[in-house]
Amino acid sequence: MLGYLSHLETGQTNQPLYLFPMCPHFHHPPPGNPLASTSCPSVCLLPPPLSEMKEKNPWHTPVTIILTVIGVIAIVTLVTVAVLQNKPIQQKYKYGIVLDAGSSHTAVYIYEWPAEKDNNTGRVQQKYSCKVKGKGISSYADEPQKAGESLRECMFEAKKQVPKNRHGETPLYLGATAGMRLLNLDDSSASNKVFQAVEEALQRFPFSFQGARILSGQEEGAFGWVTINYLSDRLKQGLETTGALDLGGASTQISFVSDSYNGLESPKNSVNFRLYGNDYHVYTHSFLCYGKDQALGLALAHQTKSGPRTITDPCFHPGYTQTKNYSILYDSPCVSERKPQEAPLSFTLSGSGNFTKCHEVIKSVFDFTSCNYSRCSFNGVFQPTPQGSFGAFSAYYFVMKFLNLTDTSTSIEVVREKLMEYCATPWTKIVKQHPKVDQKYLSEYCFSGTYILTLLIEGYNFTSETYSKIEFIKKIKGSDAGWTLGYMLNLTNMIPAEAPDSPLLPHAGYVSIVTIIAILLFALFILSLRPVWPTCSKQPQIV
Ligand SMILES: Nc1nc2c(ncn2[C@@H]2O[C@H](COP(=O)(O)OP(=O)(O)OP(=O)(O)O)[C@@H](O)[C@H]2O)c(=O)[nH]1
Q1: pTM of this prediction?
Q2: Active site (annotated) includes residue 220
Q3: Angstrom distance (rounded) from CA 92 to CA 485
Q4: Which of 11, 112, 241, 331 has its CA 20 to 30 A from that of 86?
Q5: What SS3 state is found at 275?
Q6: Which sequence ranges are marked TM in the entry (predicted)?
Q7: 236 lines ligand 1 (CB under 6 A)
Q8: Structural domain boundaries in the chain
Q9: What is the CATH number of domain 93-214?
Q10: 2 CB near ligand 1 (under 6 Å)
């Protein structure tokens, strides 16, 4: 038989090298007689000059050609099926809507997750959020109808955001937090009317309305913890969890896992979860009246207990003045009992911008003396020592971001110094520096920054070391940090108690393995046909 002819030049002899695929090695015909046989048992004699002959490829038999074609078709079919069968289909989404009816305002959040991964494996993420104009629903106690109306604009937007064919199946929840907790304490009938109005308003939308309710402080804290750990994938991967610090307008929550807390001491602070096959004993506490707006009210109440007409408030910038109404300030159940017996209608507040004095005023709103447990935060509330990393969101983030204090590697002493300098800055200068910032927020950053530091260090007992493990966050991977996502995940059973079975291989790995196996099988098949392989003949076939 005759193999392919190659005219590669060999280095030493400068003779042509003849390659015969069926011969075990190359060989050089003896000089002068290129047709002489060499050591290859199936040696192929040199053919006459190429121009004189036409090779007949021994593989070109009908059987080998048919087998090769069948083999190639089989491989292509196998790989195509593997690719198509296991290919991620074009994503379709399902949706869930949660309204966070907070004390200061209401926000609408739309979440989405892959429809085909409904069984707890798809990642839920925030698709859209809308801040409802105006104040929180609790501020509509005197005109409940308006509470419902206030939600309409954002809800119409939500209708546009969710595809029409998903409207009917999209669950819609409203959770109210500390503002409604306070209204409910103060006037439960007014609170019911507000709920009635918002329920009627929400039922008019084509979503699957699941009801409106007040979350307990414990739920608010625990679902905030779930949210941030879910978004950072710590739950699914069974990693060490992050604590959650949430500072609202009317309440504040702290939630974390501590090695020293198993729920036996102060069981009311314990929330247990089994998520993705792991058990979590979470410590959580919500301080009603210690959100930043109510805390400001507590601080003002402390300074106006004798019913003065003017106060010099160290938590406001020098040159800042404001007239405040006594009945509005003391309207909140957080301070109503402390209302001075005799007080004028209003008082004038003049800022002095003194961080040290502001810190003293703020400390006076905490009770650090009573504790019936092994350890307490404040107001006699049990709390283990903060442990691990923490995510601090809501007003923690707004305030620290504005003050440029989100870098917690900055020592607490430096944070104090910066606050000292900031508080002492005259109000006119502050306004000039931030002409676009809402003056209500702007005027309160000195108080809020000082309050946050006091709450964290003296209140929750963060030390220089543990303070550096706090991260001030607004969003994680595009979704807002807050209780709403955790709440929805819980109500829709989107976090399984046990770890779901995951596919052994990702799509690409699966396709690669099928391809390799197909090729190996084909090679094996060809080898198995060895008996019918064409062999080198002693005589070249000249056609
Ligand atoms: N500086 C600043 N403050 C904000 C902003 N949005 C909200 N706040 C304030 O931050 C505080 C906390 O706001 P939220 O997290 O919405 O709290 P909330 O849900 O109204 O309050 P709770 O019912 O106590 O949970 C409130 O005092 C708000 O007035 C913002 O964009 N910038």
Answers
A1: 0.81
A2: yes
A3: 20
A4: 112
A5: strand
A6: 63-84, 442-462, 508-529
A7: no
A8: 8-85+512-532, 93-214, 292-365+396-451
A9: 3.30.420.40
A10: no
